[in-house]
Here is the input.
Amino acid sequence: MNTLAQVPVEEGLFTGPAEAPQLIGGHCADCGGWHFPAQDNCPHCASLAVHRTPLSRRGRLWTWTVQTFAPPVPPYRGDVEGFMPFGVGYVELPEGLCVQGRLTVADAALLTIGMPMELRLEPWHVDDQGRQVMGYAFAPLAA
Here is the structure.
């Protein structure tokens, strides 16, 4: 079986690729605030006492929409002619923050605000070095 090496779309964004990936957020030791993606200073209080911490894999769909047209090129790298609509939404994690991301489905019949969601890694494209670039998305959990 010939499989491509996998690399994250951005180093330090999530753990993996793995069967149980986690986003890497920032948690401030001074104010207790959470943020994603992680950064060196706290966006809530400007403290530098931020610890990079894996976030919960599961949350609830806070809101969503469907991207029905190809984004501008660049930064979009996909096939504009063969563009397929995709879901995008905010998922509220138990840490108290909402994370924006792609959804694995774009069908209104399958998405409901408040439904449980789980983090997944998905292939985005093959880079110039022949590696599969992976990004994150949220998938509905079966009830």
